[in-house]
Structures are given as structure tokens and as C-alpha cells.
Amino acid sequence: GIDSEDSLTAIRQRERRNLGWLIFISAAIVITCVILIRHITGLKENAPAALPVTEQIHPALQANYQTSGASEHLQAVWLNAADAMLTTDIHYQIETANPAASTLFGNPQLTGQSLQQLVPWLSVPKSGIAPNAFGYNVECIRQDGQRFPAELSINQFHIGKEKKFIMVLRDNSERKRVEQTKTNFVSAVSDELRAPLKAMRYAISTTLRQHADSLPESIQNMLQIANQNGESLTELINDLLDVHELEAHCMQFHFATWPLASMLNKAVAANLTYAKELGITLNLHNAIPECSLKVDQDRFLQIMHNLLTNACKFSSRGSSVSIQAHMITSTRVRVAVIDRGIGIADEFRARLFEKFSQAQEHKPGSKTGTGLGLTIAKSLAEHMGGEIGFHSVAGQGSTFFIELGSIPAPGATQL
Hints:
It is built from ten helices and 13 strands. By secondary structure, the protein is α+β, with helices and mostly antiparallel strands.
């Protein structure tokens, strides 16, 4: 008994109510999602920055993580180092060796061996080895008995209370070969230059001496300039060769006992002409100690030549250069060359004995030289067991001195 129209009306009302609830629930869900999203975004923005990975690890594991990383790094260095590296105990028994050490000595089983057998230098008694010492030039022995030069560095460390050494060895065979090649090259070039240069200088000097009157003045001036340049070139070649031989430790020294007074007289005589050309007087004081020096006379005279020519070069025309000598101990004498020239500027003193160093200020008309004279003089003095030094006052002059061991003459008064 329900009318069809009433039935449809009831159905439509239920559908409208259901649609309203659906819209309400959907809106509530959307609003809730928006609120949640905003809340999560705010939490992210206000959250502290993330810690590094190592700091996020539990403290009990973090130290192990870092130790493991450092260990892997050191292991990579140890395995891939180009130089031989070995660790030993206090008696030089090898405890560990890297692959480069096995290759260097031609022995894959170095552990347990004595490093003194491979590096005999370590077995020689010494006053002591510094905890960190570098640059020892030693000779090493490979497993097949072949000997080779090497550079040794020693570092001391401790494991607990036990002292250990780490040795680093670098093969110097190639460097020695290059040095020898360089020595041979310099010697060959010097010899090749000296012979023609000597012939040219002889021809020029002979022409000037025998035909000076018949040559026009312009030609004479040109020949004199050529002769002076030849002398300068010869001096440069000789100085370069001397420096190279001294640095390579291949210069020959012939030691003998020579009276000091005799050698100083020879030095003055050899440099007298040069001093006169510059208008300088050389004065050798009479109070020369009665002693002898055990030196290479030629090298001693070379030192005196360098000191005297420098003194003349930086002195004013008409002044004098003095040579004095006195005993500073009973077995040591000091020889001094004193000038009254321009002196040495303070800023130049630190590099006075360096190669090719030259003062900015020169006496007008003087030659600048090679800048090697004082370097050679210092090295020669040291090779003969002496030393060289100076003191100077800018504008008043300089004193250069050499100190050497002396032998008192028989009957001479001792200090």
C-alpha cells in the first residue's frame, strides 16, 4: 500500500543524506592529511643537522671504525711505497719489510734476518744514532752479493716500553751514475775549451809583445780586449771545474809540510802584478809566526789568490792591502787579508759565500768576477781542515781570514 511516488521520494532523501556524509568524511580526511603534512614538514625544518656517519655510530664501535680506516690507509702506503721500508728491534733484527725492500735486496724473506748483514754500516760502532736521522750515505749488499749505494734514514719509535727502529732505504745507484756522467761531461768540456783558449791567448799575447810597434793603435786595443776576455773566460772555466770537483768530492789534494812565511811570500809575488794594475800596494807584515802548515800548497795559494784579488778589487786606487798572521793557539794559526775598501753591506753578508753571489756595489772600473772565488776558498779551507771567516765595517774595509792547523818550527817559542 505505498504509493510509488512516495517510495521514490524516500529513496532520494536517503541518497542526499549519504552524499552529505560522504562529502563531510572526505573533507575531514583531506583536512587531516593537510595538517599531518604540515606537521611533518615543520618537524623536518626544525630538526638538527644529521651527524656524520662516524658520529652516528655507537661510541663503542666508533673507535674501531676509525682505527680500521687508518689501518687500511697505512697498509696501502706500506705496500705501495717506492722506497724500501723495514722495521727492526733494537738489535737491528728485521721484524717487517715492505715489498719494495724485498725487491731492493732481491730477497722475499727478509723477516728474521739481521739488517747489519745487508747494511754493514749499521755494524760499525758509533757514538750514537739520533732518534730521527736522515741522509746517511751507506753501502748495501743484495742477496746475490752485489753491492750498491743507498741513502738511509732512521726513525725511532716505541711499542709499549720496547724501542724499535723503522729504516727507509733509497737506491742511489742511478744518481751516482748520473753524477759520474756529469763529472765526465764537465771534465771533457773543460778540457776541450781550455786547449783552444790557451792557444788563442798565446797567439794574442805573442802578437802584442812582438809586433806592438808595427800595429795600429786600434788593432792593439782590440787585441788587448780579446786578451782580457780570454783571461776572464779561462778564470770562469777553472772556477766552474773547481766547484764541480769540490761538490763531487773528486778534487785531488797533495798534502805536505810547508813553511808559512814561504807560502805567504809566494802569494804576494803571484798577485803583485794584478795589484799594481789597480794601483794597490800589497804589504806582508814581517811578524810571521815561525811555523809550518800541512796543506796542499797550490790550494793554499789559490785561497790566498781569491782573498787578495777580492781585497784589491774593492779597494780604492792608491790604498794598500795587508797580509798578517798570528798564532791563536799553540797548534793553530790565523792568516788575515785586510783592506780599507768599501766594506760589505749588512744585507749581503748572509749570502757572501754562496755560489755566484756578488755585491751590488763595486769599485768603479773594476771587474765583477765570477762570484765563485769565496765559495771555492771556503770549500778548499774546509777540505784542508781549516775554516774561513770575515768581519767588515761598511765604508771602512774588510778583513778575511783563514784558520789552519800549524806545526811549530824546531826551536820556535810555543804559546
